[in-house]
Queue: 2 jobs
Job 1
Amino acid sequence: LRVDESKLTTEYFEQLSRESAELCCAIVPSSEERVRQEVAFRSVLEVARRAFPDASLHHFGSTALGFSLANAGDDFLGKGHTLLEIFVRILTHLKMKDMDLSISLGSNAYDAYTPAQLVEKLGIVMKNAGMRDVKMLTRARVPIVKIRDAITGIRCDIGFQSKLVLYNTRLLKAYSRIDPRFRELVFIVKYWSKQRNINEPYFGTLSSYCFVLMVIHFLQIRGVLPCLQQIAHDGQNVPNIAIDEANVYFCEDVDTLVSSGKWTCTNAETVGELVVAFFKYFSAEFPYVHGVASVRTGSVLSKEDKGWTKDRQQEMNRSVEDPFETTNNVGRPVDKETLFEVRGEFIRASKILCSAGGVGTGAAYEAIL
Ligand code: CTP
Ligand code: MG
């Protein structure tokens, strides 16, 4: 990959930053949508308790984080939107957002039923309660029930995941409170990945979660974000809080972290500069063959040290470590074929961003989508 970055001008980066802000404005969920999510949450809980009286329900993933791309509301062609905003809303309308929900039960239930049986039992009560489009994915790696809430029309993926999903959602949330550039970059990368069809783990490409971890890793390397799992709150040793054999400790009090000066950001780049650098990093700089992006340590680890060297051809497959479940490689769905597709998209975006800057054309993001 050869791009001449010296041609990129300050005006170009400013334009990219402006477009990023515009894109984010257009795709963040409205408050009306959050109310609908709340209504759906309550009706799912109410129905789930018919099958499992002691069930509690947890909301995780992008809709819990405020990282979801909006479902278009009724007003999406209303006044005050730019053409770009309308374009974005129409496209995201076609990719309705699912709410990720997880049920936890008293421990007896887990002895009495397999995960597939739990999902079946839940699916039946959901159907009987009049939920729409009920599908039971009993054979998925993590079995889930998919439903569409009858009142709000919101789609939900409901599973019996381990508690770790709640902790990793909290970790992502803490990072999003440290620096606003993180959230903007996540929106752009997620939106780009969905438009380019490389955000479909069921079809061998990467999950949004994987892309978000890649963004955090990049921002850590770049000095925009700290490594929250390495910062002890007392300035001494990092504690061990064990849940499901993982250490789920991280410094969650980010307000104090910043106000006390324990973390000072030294990077003053604009979002536009970071977007260009992100795509360059993952198309030309990241060492896919030997390296693993590790948010947990804020560094690139060696595959050799992690024992992840079995198949050299599946480079990306073993390139992103889960921050808590350290044996879990989050790029797992990627295989030999989809690896070329995903890396090809990174290279394409990087080239376009750099050449658009060179010739000074407008609407850079529309070009990479
Ligand atoms: N998750 C996980 N391990 C994975 C994939 C997902 O623990 N390999 C959990 C994470 O808690 C993540 C949540 O599932 O936040 C949702 O993942 P995903 O759907 O990929 O991300 P979202 O941010 O919800 O993106 P989208 O808007 O595309 O649904
Ligand atoms: Mg999700």
Job 2
Amino acid sequence: MSKTPVKVAVTGAAGQICYSLLFRIASGALLGPDQPVELRLLEITPALKALQGVVMELDDCAFPLLSKVEIGDDAKKVFDGVNLAMLVGARPRTAGMERGDLLSANGAIFTAQGKALNEVAADDIKVLVTGNPANTNALIAMSNASDIPNERFAALTRLDHNRAITQVAQKAGVAVTSVSHMTIWGNHSATQYPDLFHAQIDGKNAAEVINDQAWIADTFIPTVAKRGAAIIEARGSSSAASAANATVECLHDWALGTPAGDWTSMAIPSDGSYGVPEGLISSFPVTIADGKVSIVQGLELDAFSKAKIDASVAELADERAAVTELGLI
Ligand code: NAD
Ligand code: LMR
């Protein structure tokens, strides 16, 4: 007997990330090859016509796992009974803009969506925010959804995690599958800290294998942290297919668990671990089992790593202060 479809809400569904994302979800990449899904797609009213075109294309794929698609511009209707929510819709950063500029523009969106999820989502709802500034948008949504446990909110740093894996694999001349235990700490922004000191290459400490502190500090970290801006510069618009891939991979692992013997990176509400103030949505190394996300404990942080993490966390604290000031949380 086939399984009950999982209801997956996606916002910004007519946008460029979703033009990749929806097809991955419907094909089974999110929840596996035997789990039907129902898509609930939210857009602003002017984008609904374009979204109808995307739905026509979903229809034209005849995906066996796609049980139903509903679209709309009313969050309370679209989120009704949803089990998973991918909050992608937001105003993308354009050339020259920093994420901080986006706080007020996006605050209203995530306040309303947090409230709507609080009212109508299923009891097991998990909410992953991709729309930037992702960490603080997740904080806003979480703060406006008092009936949903805080640990059901997360922001995407899996794209940064994947970027870091590829950069180090290319430097070491190994396959990406040789790289494990990667960590992104902090904010999904240029202050993030991709940590090679706990990563491994074929089971050996990655920083020791690379053995080039100048490359780590001056090439690896800035390349990963500024990759979003580099893609905007090259493409004229922000990353889309890779962001969709990361969104699918993050929620896949949240729902189905991280692989044995490795961890991933995910921005989740801090419990105070590693000195990150409680409640900030900051990226950590995490393992996931049975839908429960646990911060990897006991990693030794030297002065270099600690300073990098503190700088990114300070930016998150500033963003929290700004949205508090704006009355969004
Ligand atoms: P896009 O402009 O192509 O699409 C965004 C869509 O959101 C638009 O169709 C817009 O109509 C819709 N939208 C706006 N307000 C909405 C609302 N209130 N409800 C529902 N939909 C709404 O942008 P994109 O390239 O798809 O990027 C989406 C977001 O993801 C941006 O904020 C971008 O910066 C961010 N992003 C994050 C990461 C990450 O790793 N976290 C990576 C890439 C992009
Ligand atoms: C990315 O990392 O590609 C996105 O967050 C785009 C951006 O605004 O940097």
